[in-house]
Amino acid sequence: MMVESASETIRTTPSNQNGVSSLSSQSDGGGGREGGSNGDTNGEISPVDLLHLQQQQALQAARQFLLQQASGLNSPGSNEVKQSPVQVPVSMAMMSPQMITPQQMQQILSPPQLQALLQQQQALMLQQNPKKVGNHCANSYTICVFQQLGSKQLAFQQQLIQMQQLQQQHILNLQRQGLVPLQPTAAMQSLQQGMYTDTHALMFTVANTDFFLFCLFPDSHEEHAGSHPLYGHGECKWPGCEALCEDMGQFIKHLNNEHALDDRSTAQCRVQMQVVQQLEIQLAKESERLQAMMTHLHMRPSEPKPFNQPVSTYEAYPEGLPHPPTSAATPITPLLHTHSHSHTHGVGPIRRRNSDKYCTPIASELAQNCEFYKNADVRPPFTYASLIRHAILESPDRQLTLNEIYNWFTRKFAYFRRNTATWKNAVRHNLSLHKCFVRVENVKGAVWTVDEVEYQKRRPPKMTGSPTLVKNMISGLGFGSLNASYQAALAESSLSLLNSSPLVTPPSAASLNMLHVGHDDVSSTVEQVNSNGSCSPTLSPQQYSHPVHVKEEPTEVEEDSRPVSLLAGVTHSLPLPSDERDLEEDLPTEELE
DNA sequence: TTCGCCATAAACATTC
DNA sequence: CGAATGTTTATGGCGA
């Protein structure tokens, strides 16, 4: 669902994350456009003021909720929650309730959400005090609402808090079971559905993402209660009504009598329309924000096509050496884009060698962001040499003609679908210039292969000679700086996020890649670092370089040297493209634990 | 400042 | 012959 649409918005600007600014823009623009129902300030209390008052009360309720949440997290059971596979331990632990300011709450509870609440209450006020509204046009009802805020809002807030408590327990249970949906859009959809049917079941809920969702949950009995969407639980579901009706007939009668077409009903309907509209806007914004977040975190927002699989082939790479993760339980570093080159995205045609220099794992990077580079006109942060080598090694026979290299570039990178003369010239230049690329005459013509020995020679001597230096460098790049549990949680959350698509292999892809693939340009150094620890043995470049000759089939030795993957089993159940035979053949040989 | 790496451009040669 | 392929040189940016 949302995963599919992510790729299309991958280039969109991240949504406005400033809840305050969006507050004013939405409350002003939204209300004003709709015939000025609440957008004027002609001596009355403006909707903005009203909204502020509402927000204060929402903040109060939210603070209380956060207190409850915090106490729950700090309880002995908090560890369990923390270790939940889908728990993202980002914000909850960091956001003590004492730290919550109104400004923060404005971000937690976005303006449309608050405004939806406001409008709900407005509708409630209207319903409970029809005479107050009386013949007022819809534009002026807010003042009446405001006058009634005191007692009604207090009761409303109490109701809210009670539901919070119930919902808190519910959420914790779901978190333990890993059932809380990560996608805010899903919650928002239920929210939107709920708005049509049950506008009173207001609940705070905390998804295990790092932001709160202020949700309206549909009544679970709604669908079965009756045939009318405004009737359920034996009562009228008209906003703010709650009139008891024995049966459908009585309800219909009540509906015709109490909610006939008049100014009041029209105003209420208008309010409801605005609620829906605001929620739709909010849904769009939250979806956009989510995608921006995923894009920022390089969580491979879109994987709808089975075509996305190059990860698998990495298994057969010569550099697919024992390449353990930072810890056995946290093979997910690649999911986070912590490398120094991240800022180069979209910078422009000038790309310097920061990639190679700074240990960019091209394989994992490409694996993570395959779809991104395929669709976004962004220059990949890799050198031509790295890319060429990658393309050649990715091929079944580890040899490509020049034209096939061209095709690989254009297939993998939207960026290389333009300015062909420039980058093709650069490719040819690199092929000729670097000794690591060896031209071999084939039956069909010339093909290019990679001489790993030569390629490794390109590495700066200090990188191979000083493991300590390398280690510091790598840790400085973020490979070892991430909290292990955080990494694991992110991996798991990503898994949950992206598993919604059956054809998708993103988490396993990235993880597998991390496990198996030597980091391009620094594969040797990284592996040496790891060899100092508890992980993989160190192989010299000679050991995993392949002979420079035209091969008809992959060498056995390289495949035998591949590591054991903790996650390799994931791929067993995943569809594999036809050209992934290396992996398919090799998977059975790999053991899980 | 120097040096190495890289991207880019371009001239030129060779092959298809 | 023209395009594709391959080689080489020059230039400039950038970081160490």
UniProtKB/TrEMBL annotation:
<feature type="compositionally biased region" description="Polar residues">
    <location>
        <begin position="1"/>
        <end position="18"/>
    </location>
</feature>
<dbReference type="Pfam" id="PF00250">
    <property type="entry name" value="Forkhead"/>
</dbReference>
<feature type="region of interest" description="Disordered">
    <location>
        <begin position="1"/>
        <end position="45"/>
    </location>
</feature>
<dbReference type="GO" id="GO:0001227">
    <property type="term" value="F:DNA-binding transcription repressor activity, RNA polymerase II-specific"/>
</dbReference>
<protein>
    <submittedName>
        <fullName>Forkhead box P4</fullName>
    </submittedName>
</protein>
<dbReference type="InterPro" id="IPR047414">
    <property type="entry name" value="FH_FOXP4"/>
</dbReference>
<feature type="region of interest" description="Disordered">
    <location>
        <begin position="526"/>
        <end position="545"/>
    </location>
</feature>
<keyword id="KW-0863">Zinc-finger</keyword>
<feature type="compositionally biased region" description="Acidic residues">
    <location>
        <begin position="581"/>
        <end position="593"/>
    </location>
</feature>
<dbReference type="GO" id="GO:0008270">
    <property type="term" value="F:zinc ion binding"/>
</dbReference>
<keyword id="KW-0804">Transcription</keyword>
<dbReference type="InterPro" id="IPR036390">
    <property type="entry name" value="WH_DNA-bd_sf"/>
</dbReference>
<feature type="region of interest" description="Disordered">
    <location>
        <begin position="570"/>
        <end position="593"/>
    </location>
</feature>
<keyword id="KW-0805">Transcription regulation</keyword>
<dbReference type="GO" id="GO:0000978">
    <property type="term" value="F:RNA polymerase II cis-regulatory region sequence-specific DNA binding"/>
</dbReference>
<keyword id="KW-0678">Repressor</keyword>
<keyword id="KW-0479">Metal-binding</keyword>
<dbReference type="InterPro" id="IPR032354">
    <property type="entry name" value="FOXP-CC"/>
</dbReference>
<dbReference type="InterPro" id="IPR001766">
    <property type="entry name" value="Fork_head_dom"/>
</dbReference>
<feature type="DNA-binding region" description="Fork-head">
    <location>
        <begin position="379"/>
        <end position="452"/>
    </location>
</feature>
<feature type="domain" description="Fork-head">
    <location>
        <begin position="379"/>
        <end position="452"/>
    </location>
</feature>
<keyword id="KW-0862">Zinc</keyword>
<dbReference type="GO" id="GO:0005634">
    <property type="term" value="C:nucleus"/>
</dbReference>
<keyword id="KW-0539">Nucleus</keyword>
<dbReference type="InterPro" id="IPR050998">
    <property type="entry name" value="FOXP"/>
</dbReference>
<dbReference type="InterPro" id="IPR030456">
    <property type="entry name" value="TF_fork_head_CS_2"/>
</dbReference>
<keyword id="KW-0238">DNA-binding</keyword>
<feature type="compositionally biased region" description="Gly residues">
    <location>
        <begin position="28"/>
        <end position="38"/>
    </location>
</feature>
<dbReference type="InterPro" id="IPR036388">
    <property type="entry name" value="WH-like_DNA-bd_sf"/>
</dbReference>
<dbReference type="Pfam" id="PF16159">
    <property type="entry name" value="FOXP-CC"/>
</dbReference>
